[in-house]
Design a protein that fits this description.
CATH architecture of the largest domain: 3-Layer(aba) Sandwich
Number of domains: 5
CATH class of the largest domain: Alpha Beta
CATH topology of the largest domain: Rossmann fold
Largest sheet: 10 strands, mixed
Structural class: alpha+beta
Length: 598
């Protein structure tokens, strides 16, 4: 016999006993109410044990399916009608109590159910590979509510020792309290930003690393004394490839004197030629071997990445030498011309126009490095010569009124840079060595000949995770033999791109967290493997963005939707019966203990 029948029988016996006790009681007052209360109490007690269920009919689309993914809000699932399926990659911690049919593999599930034409997806959405499996189906996406955290970020995985680390991104604060975003490196707080509640704010942190090699900074989110998140920012600082410089000076002024010393101290290979008298020169060679500089020709210029020359010297050299300089710039060499007059003296220096202004009231000059959002300290100098803006020129250095002092123009494969600044050595005299270094390092880097890398490597995904698939795509300037690709001590099998024969790729599943060594033709290309929980919000946001972009780019299919009548079994809440039992039992207790005693 089933349990419910046993429970009903026991309750009927209990009801009969209660009715017998009420009827045989000497005091016959309120007998009807006592019998009614007894019946209600026993009936409600019975229904607490044996609930009442009833059937309802739900009109549901036969070729639609509800698919729950990671990030689905459990509180909103009860409002979703119809049968639910949960993707295998969804977090069991969030959705462990949800009644849904598990789907281990989306591709197999869709092939096994060809009638499903529309996918109603909840949560963060599908991955790139899962979206490919869902191609050809109509998709309705219901993204999760906004979360608090970094939703986009970017920084250089590799940078030269003279460059700044630039960490940029967007922070989304969906909470009701302000948070503090902090960049921390090597135990020191570098920069921070306060994010107001209910706001989405871009951020940009800059730092010049003081060490070479591998480093891991951290982006930390704080709310009061609580740490909300701590995300790693790994990068690799490489030694600056020595750029060979040639300086041709009409006379050795203070600007050349201090620049010469700074270049020597920073290990730049430098050839310096200064004119003593007509056709007589003095030459110095620092950090490099000597060569003949009596006559400038194409063969000599091929050895240098940057030529720095003042306009007076450029005008005094021969026409053949200027033609050689022009040809060298066309072939990739960088040319930096210092000007001091409002009228150009040569065709090369006249390619960027200039103008002169009256002496300013302020005796100092404020400078900004364009495109780096970096302000230099003021120079104790009156500047009257400026450069004109042009659609073909790129401003490099401007003052606080946006007047241009240094400008760049592409000339063939190289660049011509014109500078009207003549006294940057005042930074050194004022003790601002950092500003002087930032100015000249930035200028030389933007002027120098661009050297093509023999091989470049792209790593997919952006955040490699332990024991998950990672793909390496290597482009080689020089084709030829099959490249050797190894991760730590494990050799990989590369495959060649049929359409791009200079491109090879390989896949692996990294076994070690942190820094790993990738060797391509014996050249080390270190990369960082993250923990699974690192940058989780960013990955979820990227998945949501990918879903929305996929839906926008995919033409929706107009399928005829079939309607089915689905029978759903519902249950009346037990709280109603508990309340009835409690009221009836309370009346019987009150009547027998208090009313009877009066």
């Amino acid at each position: 016999m089933e349990f419910k029948y046993i429970a009903i029988l026991v309750c009927l016996i209990l009801l009969a006993f209660c009715l017998f006790k009420e009827i045989t009681r000497a005091d016959k007052s309120r007998l009807f109410w006592r019998i009614l209360a007894s019946v209600i109490a026993i009936a409600c007690f019975t229904l607490l044990i044996v609930p009442i269920k009833y059937e309802t009919h739900l009109q549901q689309n036969a070729n639609e399916v509800v698919l729950l993914t990671n990030g689905t809000n459990p509180d909103s699932i009860s409002k979703i009608k119809g049968k639910k399926y949960i993707l295998g990659s969804a977090s069991t911690a969030e959705l462990k109590n949800i009644k849904a049919v598990p789907v281990a593999d989306l591709s197999y599930f869709l092939k096994a159910n060809p009638t499903f034409q529309k996918l109603n997806i909840y949560g963060y959405g599908l991955t790139d590979s899962e979206l490919q499996d869902a191609a050809g189906h109509e998709i309705s996406f219901h993204p999760s509510p906004k979360s608090t955290g970094i939703i986009s970020v970017n920084w250089q995985a590799k940078l030269k020792a003279t460059n700044d680390l630039l960490v940029q991104g967007t922070y989304q604060n969906a909470g009701n309290k302000s948070v503090k975003l902090l960049l921390k490196g090597l135990g020191f707080s570098i920069d921070s930003l306060i994010i107001n509640p209910q706001s989405t704010v871009p951020f940009s942190f800059k730092n010049k690393p003081k060490q070479n090699g591998k480093a891991v900074y951290q982006l930390i989110t704080l709310q009061g004394n609580d740490t909300i998140s701590k995300e790693p920012v790994p990068f690799l600082v490489e030694d600056q490839t020595p750029m060979k410089l040639l300086i041709l000076a009409s006379f050795p002024d203070f600007e050349y004197k201090f620049l010469k010393k700074w270049l020597f101290d920073n290990q730049y290979p430098l050839a310096f030629r200064s004119q003593i008298s007509k056709n007589k020169y003095s030459s110095d060679f620092l950090n490099m071997d000597s060569l003949s500089l009596n006559r400038i020709n194409s063969a000599a210029l091929k050895r240098f990445d940057v030529l720095i020359i003042d306009e007076e010297e450029l005008a005094s050299i021969s026409v053949e030498e200027r033609a050689s300089i022009d040809q060298a710039v066309n072939n990739g060499m960088g040319l930096l011309i210092r000007i001091s007059n409002s009228k150009s003296a040569t065709a090369l220096s006249g390619r960027i126009s200039r103008y002169e202004t009256p002496p300013p009231k302020e005796k100092t000059l404020s400078l900004n490095i364009k495109n780096e959002d970096f302000k230099l300290t003021k120079l104790p100098f009156e500047q009257t010569l400026f450069l004109k803006a042009s659609t073909t020129d790129e401003p490099l250095i401007t003052d606080n009124t946006n007047k241009i002092l240094v400008s760049s123009r592409i000339n063939g494969s190289g660049k011509i840079i014109i500078s009207s600044l003549s006294a940057t050595y005042n930074w050194l005299l004022s003790g601002n060595q950092a500003d002087y270094a930032s100015y000249w390092a930035s200028l030389i880097s933007k002027t120098a000949r661009k050297k093509a890398e023999i091989q470049t490597v792209e790593i997919i995904p952006q955040f490699p995770v332990l024991n998950q698939k990672i793909r390496f795509i290597a482009d080689f300037k020089e084709g030829g033999k099959t490249p050797s690709i190894m991760i730590n001590d494990i050799k990989l099998s590369p495959r060649q791109n049929i359409e791009l024969p200079f491109q090879w790729d390989a896949v692996s599943w990294p076994q070690n967290e942190g820094w790993n060594n990738l060797y391509i033709n014996q050249v080390n290309q270190s990369f960082y493997v993250y923990k699974k929980e690192d940058w989780q919000l960013l990955k979820n946001q990227a998945k949501t963005d990918l879903m929305q972009q996929f839906i926008e780019n995919t033409s929706r299919r107009n399928n005829k939707i079939a309607i089915t009548d689905q029978i759903i079994l519902n249950e009346i809440s037990k709280w109603w019966f508990f309340a009835g039992f409690l009221l009836a039992a309370s009346f019987l207790w009150y009547e027998s203990r208090i009313v009877k005693g009066k």
